Amino acid sequence: MAKASAILQVKWLAKIAEVLISAISAIVFLFFDFLDVVMCIFYRSADEFLEGKASSCYCTRISEEEENKKQKSCVDGDGAGAGEGEIDYPRGNEYFSETLHGRRNFFRNAMRGFAGIALLWPRKWWAGDEKKLLVKNNNGNRWSDCGCEACTECVVANGSSSNPRRLHFVVKEPRRGSLGDNKKKEPQNIIFLHGFLSSSSFWTETVFPNLSETTEQNYRLFAVDLLGFGRSPKPRDCFYTLKDHVEAIENSLISTYQLNSFHIVAHSMGCVIALALAAKYSKTVKSVVLIAPPYFSSEGENASLTALEKLAARRIWPPLLFGSSFMSWYEHLGRFVCFIICRNHNTWESILKLVTWKRDLHFLVLDLTRHTHHSAWHTMHNVICGGAKLMDRYLEILRMDEVKMKVIQGSRDQVVPLECSSNMKLKVPNAEVNIIENADHNSVILGREKDFTRDLECVWKSVFCSN
């Protein structure tokens, strides 16, 4: 009896806590709604004063006809082509996320209802015409972005920066003269794609140092800085759609190194790009390993908004969810955070070194600021949210072509719901799903680097043996 009473008491406390969290969340995010409107006006004024042109934003819900017209002018009408004849990139607005304009804001919606609001907030400020953003200094940083060498350099494989869409990447070649008895044997290629607010360091610091001797002899590894992150270019005339990311990888890696076959390993956001790339090259990709993939069904008309609600629900608890929702729902508040942290990252890094008495900071700390608000905002919405509309299509192609797929996720992942992995298994029954107990979104790799690397090598070896 006492045990049943205790259980009942715990349930009541949980319900009370849920009600309190929901109530406080509503109040906090209502305040953020107001603050984002204020910051919108501030940044437009500041941009016009400092750059000579007020930049555009997504503070309006425009009609579907206007949206199609706007986005078709930004997307190559002929598409990106169909690599190996497997998949055509859709035209129009299919690569743009509805979450760019569809995020609700109480005060912004209310203000549009007043006839005289144009006196305070002229339509030209919130018309959503992104072309204004491209008029001046296309590939340069905003005044609110960092302009240091580490953030603006465009290092590519051949040492040239003439192509603003060529990515930076780290190549680990097989040991010289160690490809076994057959000296003409071609190494197998592995492409690593990192997650949100990360870089190639995520792989060079975890997987690369823990490779077995056999792997080092027979595999060539590419760790990529995705467009807009790390040391890769961060152009302002780019909306960082899946198409943009895939084309950047094609031009920088696949074409340059003439990769006739390759494996893909991706974490978190990189999984969406990995699936797009794998689907386009489904006849040549050997295997796909996805770690904590943010997968949501493409069914329904609001797949992008559903993904946003799942990954960034407007709640103050848990803290990781609160941070995600703050940065994903509020364009101008997010830019303010980037202005304070990213623009001044050298100062913050110096302070951290002084406080921690360390000469070298952890690579995750350094990677966190290596982006612009423009690149991070658009990648979040057009890749993670917008990609939700296309994921089922990609998975169906990989299922039909019987591409080997493995999904790995931590049982305590608070960033990507655990249901994502199980739902992916339902979509691709042949996919292997491995849930790591007591691991979260990052510790599914960090802290178990050797075990994780062995898992990868088993996948690559199984493909090699089957061939």
Global geometry: globular
- What is the helical fraction, as a range of percent? 40-55%
Report the sheet-strand fraction. Answer: 5-15%
What value does the average pLDDT take? 83
Number of strands: 7
Question: Which structural category do the helix and sheet elements fall into?
Answer: alpha/beta
Helix tally equals 19
Radius of gyration: 23 Å
Termini separation comes to 62 Å
Reading the helices and strands in chain order gives HHHHHHEEHHEHEHEHHHHHHHEHEH
Which parts are unreliable, with pLDDT below 50 for 5 consecutive residues or more?
A: 62-92, 115-139, 155-162
Within the largest sheet, what's the order of strands? 1-3-2-4-5-6-7
Report on the biggest sheet: 7 strands, mixed
Overview of this protein structure:
- The protein is α/β, with parallel strands linked by helices.
- 45% of the residues lie in helices and 9% in strands.
- It has helices at residues 2-51, 64-72, 99-102, 106-111, 123-126, 149-152, 201-204, 213-218, 242-254, 269-280, 303-311, 319-329, 331-341, 345-356, 363-367, 373-385, 391-400, 419-427, 449-466, and strands at 169-172, 188-193, 219-224, 262-267, 285-291, 404-410, 432-436.
- It has a 7-stranded mixed beta sheet with strand order 1-3-2-4-5-6-7, with helices on both faces.
- It is globular.
Layout: helices, strands, pairs:
Blueprint: H1 2-51, H2 64-72, H3 99-102, H4 106-111, H5 123-126, H6 149-152, E1 169-172, E2 188-193, H7 201-204, H8 213-218, E3 219-224, H9 242-254, E4 262-267, H10 269-280, E5 285-291, H11 303-311, H12 319-329, H13 331-341, H14 345-356, H15 363-367, H16 373-385, H17 391-400, E6 404-410, H18 419-427, E7 432-436, H19 449-466
Parallel strand pairs: 2-3, 2-4, 4-5, 5-6, 6-7
Antiparallel strand pairs: 1-3
